[in-house]
Amino acid sequence: MTAYKESEEGKAEEQNKSLGRHLGTTIRQLRLDHNLTIAEVSERAGISRGMLSKIENNLAATSLETLEQLANALGVTLSKLFQNYNLPRGAAQLVKDGEGMEVVRRGTRVGHTYHLLAYDQGPHKTFEPFLITLEDSHEEFPAFEHPGTEFIHMLEGKLEYRVGKETFVLSRGDSLTFQGDIPHRPESFIQTPIKFLAIIHYDAPDKNHSEE
User: Fold this and answer.
1) What interhelical angle do 49-56 and 38-45 show, nearest 10?
2) Whether domain 101-206 has CATH 2.60.40.730
């Protein structure tokens, strides 16, 4: 037996144990949620109490047929027993207060700070959330244009914001949404310091176009 084969068999065995633990824990929790005893569920499922106890404690393997009988006895679908198994790690991303990556964008100057609050590492960016702090009321911003839709939510201060030919006065708690390809920028600072979230959502890439 090669080392590679031994490694693959070891991985498969560990996966089976992991799945067994998940199924046993799920079945036990569902049984308790329904205030059912092992005797009641085993009778409904047509299996012995000893077998059910072994399944719940990951001491015995079981077939899909038995799992389906248990699901029926617990009043759930078979897929419910597998729900939340083997969720990918890294599905959530935490950025602690003050740890957002400081980035430089066109218009970034002293007193203007951009912190990127999430880092999309996939092949296509889906969104970019920025925490923007503005303190110097004498600086002027150039107009920004970019793909996607932008959402702004004011956290502190008061600001006049221009989108195309319109201007909007934004105070704490106000929100503004607009298409990113329309020229937009802070027009004037009414009350500093100013702090707001700016979230840019990008359209999904066109599959047909990307495959050409």
Assistant:
1) 110
2) no
pTM above 0.70, yes or no: no
Nearest to 158 by CA among 187, 128, 199, 129: 187
Evaluated on CA atoms 204, 207, 211, 212, the torsion sign reads negative
DSSP bridge pairs for 77: none
Contact 29, 81 (CB under 8 A): no
What angle separates helix 64-74 from helix 3-33, to the nearest 10 degrees? 20
Which stretches of 55-106 are assigned E, i.e. beta strand? Answer: 101-103
The two structure tokens encoding residue 210: 């990307």
Q: Before 193, cis peptide (omega within 30)?
A: yes
Write out pLDDT tens, residues 104-129: 554 444 456 777 787 654 445 678 88
Least confident of 24-38, 78-92, 176-190: 78-92
In CATH, the number for domain 3-82 is 1.10.260.40
- More confidently predicted of 97 and 180: 180
Domain residue ranges in the chain: 3-82, 101-206
